[in-house]
Write a structure and sequence with these properties.
single chain, about 525 residues, alpha+beta, de novo design (two linked rop proteins), seven-stranded mixed sheet, four-stranded antiparallel sheet, binds 2-acetamido-2-deoxy-1-O-phosphono-alpha-D-galactopyranose
């Protein structure tokens, strides 16, 4: 079991060039805590945002993804109340109280907390971490009922709706804070990730599992290969040591992508489409009833894939299949989708009901009620094509990262170009097949490539938010300049210096969640 580490130095948390500015920020958090609550915090729980390098919109179909943690994070400074009978009180304030209003609520002595998912409250993310951690503590300790009370001051630098997964960072930091405040000193990373995935679904998003994994697991300087089959697991991945290093630049589109309001036509609809694609394919290939799995609605394209292979190739545990064979299975599935799900215009409820032999009301109840969707047609063909081809790209990207080290400048250039080409293919597929890009993200990608990026694509859910670019070290400034003059100045002519700093970040892989024991007045 790997436990969430307890750190005592910021140098163990952030890349070298960020330590100075982070020290100022952390000390400001501690002094604001003192002026707000009249005492010092007992500890700070931290969880970072992430950028997904490759593997977009396939985590909820249970295919592997490759994100990395970023420096931007959520910090929760916490002081624990002594345990007393009766309700316990949670006070939540934010370092930015104008934007995030202070709140207080009681946890009744039953220990159960209600979350109103219809209200867009920042404190809901804390509550969802609290509910998840309470459940876990109840499973661990028979006599555990109710969390202790806490005073909390939050400071988040992951832009919300910016595609860097601020919500997962907040939920993970919250759940970790609750565990720690209730006396858990060695919080298992995997248990924390699993509870954060379930918790985030309580706030109305049918989340995959990539973000929570990328927030909790990473070791500094490494990306993370996350697998969901046969169970959630993650492996830290080092980038190859090259004469010119891999530099990822993140650029905000500043188009807010609010998953909660757009869920019924964007994110949650994609989850429904992928789930139904799995069921329809299973039916077409005589594999019904498909065994239920860890997909958010109980079935996944990976579940269909493994079942198909079990039947046609007699492979009972496909997670042990070699990467080469797995890729050729995926190529075969791309061909099958092309031939057997021909309807470019999508499938109506009536058509899916006929294929599956499930009455429409049942179909709606099983797959469109928990997370409601608004759609007349469901694009099963396109969604399945994207998922299988994106799963192939992740494997090809991993192959390139682990290929024998490039020793000459020419070989390095070829490797970087090949990696970039895969990012570009992902962008094309997200834009044209999965339909999760937007004109602004496309524009950022086009500008970056013109200015010399090897590869450019949206990252995260899309429909706005963030983009990620693999850029030659010597061309970072040229790419930034192209965006500044041709994107940001055009779309946001009055952009402040501060916003500009937020807009573009050169990101090194950062470290995952940790607890920091506060001793004294500063860090
Ligand atoms: P964002 O919206 O960027 O945090 C979402 C999902 C991920 C994954 C990506 C698309 C949540 C919390 N996160 O990420 O699990 O599906 O979209 O690859 O729902």
């Amino acid at each position: 079991m790997a436990a969430v580490p307890t750190k005592t130095s910021l140098a163990d948390i952030y890349p070298e060039d960020a330590v100075e500015s982070q020290t100022t920020r952390w000390n400001h958090l501690i002094s604001t805590f003192k002026s707000t609550y009249g005492k010092a915090p007992d500890f700070i729980s931290r969880s970072p945002g992430r950028v997904n390098i490759i593997g977009e919109h396939i985590d909820y179909s249970l295919y592997e993804v490759l994100p990395m943690a970023v420096t931007a994070d959520v910090l929760l400074a916490v002081s624990i109340h002594p345990q007393e009978p009766g309700p316990s009180t949670i006070s939540l304030t934010n370092i930015n109280p104008q934007k995030f209003e202070s709140k207080q609520f009681d946890i009744p002595d039953t220990g159960d907390v209600h979350i109103d998912a219809s209200a867009l409250e920042w404190t809901n993310y804390f509550k969802s971490g609290l509910v998840g951690a309470t459940d876990l503590l109840r499973k661990k300790r028979k006599d555990f009922k109710q969390s202790v009370g806490m005073d909390i001051l939050a400071d988040g630098t992951v832009p919300s709706g910016g595609g860097l997964s601020s919500s997962a960072a907040f939920v993970c930091a919250s759940a970790l804070a609750v565990m720690k405040a209730n006396g858990e000193h060695d919080v298992d990373k995997k248990a924390l990730v699993e509870l954060a995935i379930v918790s985030e679904r309580a706030v109305g998003v049918n989340s995959g599992g990539m973000d929570q994994s990328a927030s909790v697991f990473p070791l500094q300087g490494q990306a993370l290969y996350v697998s969901f089959v046969p169970q959630l697991s993650a492996r830290n991945v080092s980038f190859p040591q090259l004469s010119s290093p891999l530099v990822f630049v993140i650029a905000q589109s500043f188009v807010a992508a609010d998953k909660h309001t757009t869920g019924p036509v964007c994110y949650n609809l994609r989850v429904v489409e992928c789930t139904l694609a799995a069921l329809v394919l299973a039916k077409i290939f005589g594999l019904s009833p498909l065994k239920s799995d860890a997909g958010p609605l109980g079935y996944s394209l990976r579940g269909f894939h493994d079942t198909y292979i079990a039947k046609h190739a007699s492979i009972t545990d496909n997670s042990k299949t070699s990467k080469e064979d797995f890729q050729s299975q995926l190529h075969d599935l791309v061909g099958k989708v092309d031939a057997y799900l021909p309807q470019e215009e999508g499938y109506t409820r009536q058509q899916m009901s006929e294929i599956l032999g499930i009455p429409i009301p049942q179909l709606e109840k099983d797959f469109m009620t928990k997370f409601p969707v608004r759609a007349e047609r469901f694009k099963l063909r396109q969604r399945a094509l994207h998922v299988f081809s994106e799963a192939i790209r992740v494997l090809r990207f991993m192959d390139l990262l682990s290929s024998p080290p490039a020793t000459t400048p020419e070989a390095t250039e070829t490797l970087l170009k090949d990696l970039g080409a895969l990012l570009n293919e992902t962008q094309d597929s997200c834009r044209d097949v999965y339909e999760c890009s937007c004109p602004e993200l496309d524009e950022l990608c086009t500008l970056a490539r013109k200015a010399g990026a090897y590869g450019s694509r949206l990252t995260g859910a899309g429909w706005g938010g963030c983009s990620v670019h693999l850029v030659p070290e010597g061309k970072v400034d040229a790419v930034k300049e192209a965006w500044r003059t041709e994107y940001y100045m055009k779309h946001f002519p009055h952009m402040s210096e501060e916003k500009w700093k937020e807009a573009v970040v050169v990101s090194k892989p950062g470290s995952g969640s940790c607890v920091f024991e506060v001793k004294g007045e500063s860090v």
